[in-house]
Each structure stands twice: as C-alpha cells, then as structure tokens.
C-alpha cells in the first residue's frame, strides 16, 4: 500500500466512513495525535474557538505561540476552503454544521524526515439556516509545527 | 449504513483509497455518472480546461450553456477551496498536481427528490515547483444541474 | 430592435428611469417573472434575507433547494459586485440603501432555447452611515434555474 | 424628474438602450465629459489599458498622477464588480466582451457642490471563450477626481 | 539626503522609534498635517471609526464627501494590508492593537507638483485575544485628496 | 529603550533611513540573520522567486520543506499587504519596484523564549508602468520557523 500523507489520514477520518476507530488506532500507534469533534454555527469565530479549545484540551498543541500560530493558520485555511473564498458565514446568511479533525504527525507516514505538521479538516454541510437547504463542503489546512 | 451525499461519494473516490473500482461501480449502478482524471500545472486555466474537456468527452454534461455553467462554477469553487482563497497558482509561484473527480446524480443517494447535482473534487499536492516541497490540498464544488 | 438579455431587462428595471411600469408589463407578457423591492442596512445578511423572502413570497422560486440555491448564488454575486470585492458592509463601517430587482425567464428574450435563468440586480447608494456621504453602486448576478 | 447621479448617467449610456445620442448630448451640455468604447479579451490588463488609453486620448483626465490614480481605481472597482470578486479572466478560463463608459462631472446633476467625480461602467458578456456560453455582467466604479 | 515620500514619513512616525517629536515637528514645518493615535479592538469598524473621528476632530480632512472618501479608502487599504487579505478581525477570532498615523501633504517632500495626498499607516499587534499570542502587523493606504 | 519586535527590526531596515549598516550589525550581533535585496517586476512570481533565491543563497533558511514553507507564507502575506488585497500586479496593469528585507530570529529581541520566527518586509513603489505614476506601498509577513 502507498504511504498516506497527513492530509489523506485526516480526510479519511473526517469522512467517517468505514471502520474509523481502527483507522484512528492504527495511526495513533504510528505516533499521530488525532482528535475528531463537531461544531455548528452561523458564527465563524465559534467554529474556530471550538477547534482551538479542543486542540488545547487534548494536548495536541503545546501552550506556546509558535504552535498556536500553526494551528490557527491551519484552521483558517481549512475554513477558507470550506467557504470557497471569503471566510463568512452568518454575514452572508449561511450556516455550517461540521465535523472537524485535527491530526499532528509527520507529513508522510513512516517518513520521519518529512518533519512534524498539523492538518485540520472540516467536513459537513453548508447552506441556508433552513434544514434541507444545504449541501456538503470540505476544507483542509496543513501547516508545519 | 447512512445514505451518502454526492460530496462524500466524490471525496471517497478522489482519495483513491481502498477498493475504488467497486465503489465506482456501486454508484454507477445507482445512476451516478462518474469520472476520475488527472491534471497538473502551474497554470490554473489548464486544470480547468482539462476538467471541462473530460466532462464533455465523457458526456457528463450536455452541450448546453445551462449545464456548462453549473460545471464551471463547481470547478471554480473546488479550485478556490484547493487554493484556500485566491485562485492563483503560477502567479504566486506554486504548482498543483491533482486527481479530479466529477460526479453527477442526486444530492443524496436513494433520494430522487433531492434533485440532480454535480460535484467536482480536486485532491492532490500543492507547493513550490520543486519536488518534495509540496503538501496535500483538497477542494470541492457542488452545483445544481 | 435588438433582443435584450435577462440582465439588461433587470438593469433597466433597476434604474427606474422612464416608464418602468410599461416595461415590466411588456416583459411579464413575455412570461418573465419580475419583482422590485427595496432594502437598506449595514447588515449584509438583512439585505440577503429581504431578497430571499420577497422571492419566496412572490413565487419567483419554488420551495426546493435547487431553486433556492440558484437564487442565493445570484444574490451573493450581485452583492459582491455591489461591494466591489469583499461582501462586507457594517464590518467596514459602511451602509447600503438599494433597490433590488429579481427577474426570472429565458437568458435572451424570445429565445426559448437559451433556457431558464434568474437575474438579481442591486442598484442604490453605498457609503458611510452619514447622509450625503455615499455614492451609487450596482451589482448583478445571473444563474441558471 | 429626479436628478440623476453620475452613476445612473453612466449606466444608462452603457446599456445603449433607447436614444443614447440624445442622452449623451444632454449631459455633455451640462458639462459632463463622456466616452463610450468597446473592449474584449481574456486578458484583464488589455481591458484596463484600453480604457486608460481612451481616457487620455479623449482628454477625460489630465496628464497627472492624481487624476490617473482616480481613473485607475474606478476601473479596478468596475472590473471587480464585473468579475464578482477576484479580478481574473483568462487565469480562470473566461473571457469578457464589453462596452465601457467613462463619465466625468458632478456626483449629482445640477449640484455643483457635490464635487467632481469619475464613473466607469463596464457592461457586456462574460463566459467561456466559446460563443453562446456566456451571460451578461456589469460593474461600476466611482471615484472623486 | 534623499527626499522622503509621504508613505515613508508616515511609516517612520508609526514605528515610534527615535526622536519622533522632532520628526513630526520637522514635517509640520513643511506643511504636512500629522496625527498619531491608538486603537484596539476585535471589531474592525471600531478601528475605522476611531481613525475617521480623529481625522475630523483634528481637521485633517474638511467636512465634504470628496475628502472623506479619500480618507476612507486610505483606511480600508491600510486595514487590508494589516490583515493581509480579508478585512476580518473578530469574525476570524483575532484582535488588533495598533497605532494609527495619518499624514496629509505632498506625495514627495519639497515637490509641490506631486499634489496633495493622504497616507494612513497602521502598525501594531495582531493575534488571538490572549496576551502574548500575537505578532506585529503593518498596513498602509495612500490616496489623492 | 523598549525591546523591538522582529517586525520593527525588519521595517526599520526596509525604510533604509538613517544609519542602516549600524542597525544591521547591531542585530546581527544579537544573532538575527538579515538580508536586504531589491526586486522589480510586473510579474509577481519573479518577485517571489527573487526573495526565495536570496534566502536560500544567503542560508537564511535551511534546505527543508518546513523552513521553505514558512518563508513562502511570510512572502505571500507581505505581498498581500503590499498589494492591499488581491496578489496581482501585471494582471491589473501595475508594477512594483521594491526593497525586500528578510529577518530571522526571536520574535522579540532579547527574549529567547519567544521562539524563532521569520519576517519578510516589502517596501517600495507600486503603480502604473509609467515613471512618476506610482506611490509607496508596504507589506509584512511573519511566520514561526
């Protein structure tokens, strides 16, 4: 099997399809730190805060600005991809309900020389605040840490 | 098993992980039209052209402006997510090498009332034109058709 | 006389110059659905909501996601043109007072083969919240429906 | 009749609907300087250059940086509205064929105290380089001069 | 010594390094109008309002739309540079604490023919609302007035 | 004297005002790595390439993707600030002639615990390709490394 990149690991976990628990275990045994959570809001800063809080609480990043900066930029890139351009939700009358996945480890599995990186994937629904008037969206940000 | 959305179908196919051929067959039997191809360039318009050409050649869209417009907007949204903001590659000295996946069918599997949509997913590498100086990226656009 | 496009029809109605009632009648007799309303706010989502509400109430779009999606994207494109870039009003301390025009019908008059489209035009004033410190702006979005 | 703003004057002239020559004369007699031209390209800088060249040749702006700056920003704002976001044409595989209208005069007709402004309106078609696969677009920029 | 541009004058004053009072005096004697103030917020419109209020109160601009428009655009360009792209603070969970400097005068010192311009420089910190989790940022906008 | 941040160090060096050589020496003795160069083009990728080449040649970054990624993002942020929004030069018929300054060291002088960062500052002229029709611009990007 081809070696997976940190992005593909985070994406497979985000899609939550198939035996996710085994997949997560498999990569935790390879020293990846992994967390999956949920967030939903018309307020983009609440989604950002939910991810930052989870990352701190789960010790995915250490309490220094260097690492917080890497996480923040990965989140903003993921959100920018999710929104496909301007990072706006409620301001343009739309809402997001999503699963976020944070993965920290080497850029490519089994390649320690590829260095430590952090990947954030957002996968879920985006649309008007009315149920059923929404479609799927995805976004991913990857930063060195 | 939960019903999958057209986005998840396109994403799973894009990641090319596991038994993709079976998955593609499975959804083709459910009347989804699916195509996977590859494109790589520093020139964003070449990537767009490769996807448009494939969609026409494979009869995923009919030769009318209505459908071409839906495809075009799905591509641009996917590219915007892939680039995380400004749709620029060579202009900012970066290059993309990616798999594109086009899926046409109902927004949610086995829900004819959800209507016909087209999803475009781009998954691959983005980075400097030097090999190894790149990381993964993803983008998805979904439009009614 | 040259056949008008759906955009020009919406633009002429927006400018509200000359005999608008006759013009609207003329195109309603050609099966265009037309609505003109007003909205003003520093809050972009209120402007979007006003247009969406009018479109539903006036039966310009049917209650399904397919059509709502087309309308939404037409509104956002119009607002993006009106704002000339980032879709921000109050966040950058400016306000908009505008007439919105929604037109649904064929892309080109008397050409049924051009398909059904929806055009949204915003025309009015943009500027600081102080009266007289504002100038005109326009934006138009056109989507297949 | 309500006093028209410089934007509405430029918009009516752009749409080229009705007796444009009379309208242009009417406003030239009120000391507005007006020019209408055509440009078409996949290359945004060629469209910008065509407008700048016309403005200089027709003495709409004087040869100083102050006025050139005002014109340039009005063009970029108009182009941004026309493109509805990112000022990109060929880079995202689309083309524009348009009429540009430049109007210089008071912000509101018959109100000398409203000061001198310049308005640029772009109205035409945008779409794929294939004929018939395009729809209308509009953009307007207004700057003090 | 090389003649300084209005931008460099504003930048040197913003950095607040060395004998700022003398520098300010020196340029005030050359007929530059200068003001330095402070603003801090997660709310971008409060920063804009603080600068506009200061400019009016200190008579840097006259009470007409022409000049207010020039100031506003200079502020937005400065803020756009400070934010490096989208003009968003709290919406993306970040905060700014900054010194703003407004300078009005000729584009180049001792060159009256270069005309009157206004420069706005923002220099300070940007980052998460937590102390110490922030780094420096700068932005400058220059407009004819 | 207040401790300077890496941004202010890079900004003061960029402005090239006063005794720059002494300032550079002073910070080199404090273990900052500093380089100043020049670039001018209508082609944004040439400016990016000039900075990347200088950084490699002068050993400011090591030859690994981790560090190259940090440098690249610092450059793009600086360029985004310089352009005040979209990172476009020739595409919108404008040109840049600038001094770039790269500084690597602690985020705050004499505070080793603030970690290693890289700052890129661009300062120069932006405008139409005609001499004298240009004004100053600045942009800065700061990234952990």
TrEMBL record, chains A, B, C, D, E, F:
This is Hut operon positive regulatory protein. Homohexamer. One of its GO terms (molecular function) is RNA binding. It comes from the Bacteria. SUPFAM superfamilies: Hut operon positive regulatory protein HutP (SSF111064). Keywords: Activator, RNA-binding, Transcription, Transcription regulation. The lineage of its organism: Bacteria, Bacillati, Bacillota, Tissierellia, Sedimentibacter. The keyword Disulfide bond does not apply. Pfam families: HutP. Antiterminator that binds to cis-acting regulatory sequences on the mRNA in the presence of histidine, thereby suppressing transcription termination and activating the hut operon for histidine utilization. Belongs to the HutP family. InterPro entries: Regulatory_HutP, Regulatory_HutP_sf.
């Amino acid at each position: 099997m081809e070696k997976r990149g940190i992005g593909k690991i985070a994406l497979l976990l985000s899609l939550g399809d198939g035996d996710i628990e085994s997949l997560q275990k498999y990569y935790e045994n390879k020293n990846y730190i992994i967390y999956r959570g949920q967030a939903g809001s018309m307020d983009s800063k609440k989604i950002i805060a939910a991810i930052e809080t989870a990352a701190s609480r789960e010790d995915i990043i250490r309490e220094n600005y260097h690492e917080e900066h890497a996480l923040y930029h990965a989140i903003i890139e993921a959100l920018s991809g999710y929104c496909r351009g301007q990072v706006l939700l409620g301001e343009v009358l739309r809402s997001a309900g999503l699963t976020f996945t944070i993965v920290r480890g080497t850029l490519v599995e089994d390649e320690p020389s590829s260095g430590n990186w952090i990947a954030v994937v957002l996968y879920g629904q985006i649309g008007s605040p009315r149920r059923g008037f929404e479609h799927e969206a995805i976004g991913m940000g990857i930063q060195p840490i």
